[in-house]
Structures are given as structure tokens and as C-alpha cells.
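We treat protein structure as text, and this decision shapes the records that our systems exchange. Such a record has a labelled line for the sequence and another for the C-alpha cells. The record that follows is passed on verbatim for readers who wish to inspect the format:
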Amino acid sequence: MKKGIFSKRDRAVIVVLALCCKWSKALLSFSLLLSFALTYMSCGQVKVPEDVAAAYASLPEEIDFNRDVKRILSDKCFACHGPDAKKQKADLRLDIPEAAYAKVTESGLKAIKPGNLRRSEVIHRILSNDPEYRMPTPESHLTLTEQEKAILIKWIEQGAEYKPHWAFVAPEQQKPPAVEDEKWVKNPIDNFVLSAQEQRNLQPAPEADKETLIRRLSFDIRGISPSPTEVDQFIKDGSPNAYGQLVDKFLASKHYGERMAAYWLDVARYADTHGYLDDKHHEVSPWRDWVISAYNRNIPFDQFVTWQLAGDLLPKATQEQVLATGFNRMHKQNSEAGIIEEEFRVEYVTDRTNT
């Protein structure tokens, strides 16, 4: 019997009854004992539909809140049970554990009872066929798939652990998982990729030819296509580390910084004009060049951010640190006659804060 759907106590009952059948040679057959055990468990646990149970069987051993659960709650639940107090229904929040664990429903159950499916209102709601009881409601035009229901079941069963946003969780050294097809693995990253595929009964796609590999790599790292000479050299290079050397070559290119900076310049709302009706030229290319240079030099991220926000406030600020604060002048600027200065000062501050 697959571990997970039933509690430890329920599984213990099956084991004890089986041993009693074996050792005592009771008149009751094992089938009768098993029937009694299943009846006992159906009273103490939640009846899981077959399609949800099948999805449950395909889930990974451990359910992670950030990876598996949060997206479901965010997409299907937070509209009515999220942080927005004006839209909350039934005075229930599912975005923070304190609220989800403490909330007692009309039926006397907790909204979420870690480790206890039967006492968790959420489980009964998502498995119900009653349109007036089921969650999400039909009026929301949202539905949970069998896999999403299975994930929530296993998450609550495993303790319903909430986690902070992944960006605020310190990274930990992870041991590469074991895989069945060890010959396919070329580096530790492959273990993680192949392990996830094997859990889903998927097979890796055939390895791309060298022309395709260098094209993909060049666009990913440099943002430009490889030259015919680079393609010919890569195809002729039969050494086992040819691909790794190509990666190092592209990372050392000045175009790497341009490629990476494009993302940052976009979110930092970089532009060469002021952006309002009187759209005058806004010369801030030195800051743009500094961002490109920062990526190519691979400066630490804390410096990269701190210098842009407050480089001029650092003790004995260098010219480079002051230049980095150009980030604070990327907002739209209005130089039209008749504007109210205080109004647009607030507009600019708001824009920088949001950015």
C-alpha cells in the first residue's frame, strides 16, 4: 500500500491486523480483516476520488510550498482568501499560516489542520461535488485539476508548512538526486533535470546537433547569432570539453554584458527621452554603459544594487558609485511650462519607489 493517503495510525492498524491474522490463525480470513481495516480508515480519513488518488501517486516524495503549493493558492484561492481585506470572504486568509491554521469554520473544522485531512475544511471543500459547498465556487470560473487537489492533500498531510518567498530563503547545498539512467548524466545539474523527468515518466529529448547548440548558446549568452567562423570551429572541435570552452568564450564577450543589461535596463525604465508630451532628449547613456560594464566585470549583486540606490551617500563615494545612481533619474520627467513642481516631485518619488 502506498504510503501517504492514510495516517500513520491507520497504516499501523493494517499491519497489526495482518499480524494477528498470521499469528493467531483466527477464523476470520485476511480479506475480512482487511475489509474491517478499510472501513475503519474511511471513517477516520477523507475519501479521496480515484482520479485524485491516481494523481497523488505520481507526486514527488516531498511537497514544497514555494514550488508546488503557492502557485495553486495564488491562482485559485487568493482572489477570495488572500491579503486584500476588501475582497476577503468568510473572514478567511490562506496566504499566511497564522490565519489559515486559526480559522474555525461553521462546521467546527479548522480551515487547515496541519497533518489532519479530516479536520481540514479546505480538503472537504475542494473534493466536494456540491456546487454550493465546493471551492473554488462555480461563480469564480476557477477549477482545481486532479493534480492540484492531490498536491494540496499531500501538502496538508505532510504538515502544511508555509515558507517565505523563495528570494528570502537562504540557498542550501543540495545533493544531486539519484537517477536510473546514469549514463545520460554529464554533470550534477543533469541529475536534477533527469530526476524530474523520470518522476513524470518522461524521456530526455535527443541531444541537439552542434549547429543548433552553438546557435542556442550564442543567443542565450550574447544575444546575437554566432558567426560562420565560430560555427565551423565548434563543429571541427572534437575535444570532450569543446562545449564548456565555448561557454567560457561567450561569457568573456563584451556582448554578454549587453545581453544581461537589457533585462535590467528594461525594468529600470531606461530611455533616451523624457517621456512626456515635451519629449526632449535625455542623455543617460553613461549610466547604461556602466550597467553593461558591471555585468561584464561581474561585480557583487549587493554592490550593484546599493550603488544604484545610494552610491552618492556612501563614505568617500567614487565617481563610479555616483554614476551608478543614474538609476534614480530613469523616471519620466516633465519640463512643460505651467507644471506644479511639488506635484511632479511626488510623481517622481512614487515612480522610483515602485521601480
Remarks:
- Confidence is low (pLDDT under 50) at residues 1-6, 24-44.
- The chain is about 50% helix and 0% strand.
